[in-house]
Design brief:
Elements (H helix, E strand, L loop, with lengths): L1 H11 L10 H21 L2 H4 L4 H19 L4 H24 L1 H8 L3 E5 L2 E2 L1 H6 L4 H12 L7 E6 L5 E5 L3
Antiparallel strand pairs: 1-2, 1-3, 3-4
Helix pairs in contact: 2-4, 2-5, 4-5, 5-6
Length: 170
């Protein structure tokens, strides 16, 4: 075990200050972190990669920030990788709870809001969500393939931030 410990210290620069890490040590740390990150994502949820909600984006941003640190030596290698696993598992736990509890889901993921009802813009909701008429018109053209709001029964800003449109039947 002592040989393995010595090997890890030498090749990974464990216990060495960040400024003293060699190219090889930083590269090997990068290889370990990439493999750990791939394992984390496999243990986690594929939905977190799709960044469907702020809840998912927060995981990706924080995980990327945390996992960059052991590569450059500004944080200990193995404890920081362990922290990444804890964050991924916590995200998975919160997603499972949100799946079973609508209230918890709203708390961590938000809820959709109606922007257009029967062709009429809901200005209060638009202002609360900081969406301009031009933003709505752009999404109307791109997603609903029309420029006519009168053709829209309901438009919502979804939890993901995307705007969805339901056209009138006719």
């Amino acid at each position: 075990m002592n040989t393995l410990s010595h090997f890890a210290e030498m090749w990974l620069g464990l216990g060495v200050e960040a400024k003293d890490l060699t190219f090889i040590q930083i590269s090997l740390r990068g290889v370990i972190v990439i493999n750990a990150a791939l394992l984390m994502i496999r243990l986690g949820s594929n939905r977190s990669l799709s960044e469907k909600t702020v809840f998912d984006v927060v995981l990706i941003v924080i995980l990327a920030s945390v996992l960059a640190r052991p590569v450059n030596g500004s944080a200990p290698l193995f404890p920081t990788i362990g922290c990444g696993f804890v964050m991924v598992l916590l995200h998975r736990l919160f997603a499972a709870i949100a799946c079973r509890s609508h209230l918890f889901g709203i708390l961590i993921k938000g809820e959709p809001h109606v922007l257009v009802q029967d062709g009429k813009i809901q200005w209060d909701t638009m202002r609360r969500n900081q969406i301009s008429k031009h933003d709505l018109e752009e999404d109307l053209r791109l997603s609903a393939h029309t420029e006519d709001l009168a053709k829209i029964r309901v438009a919502r800003i979804e939890r993901s931030g995307d705007i969805s449109f339901i056209k009138n039947d006719a």
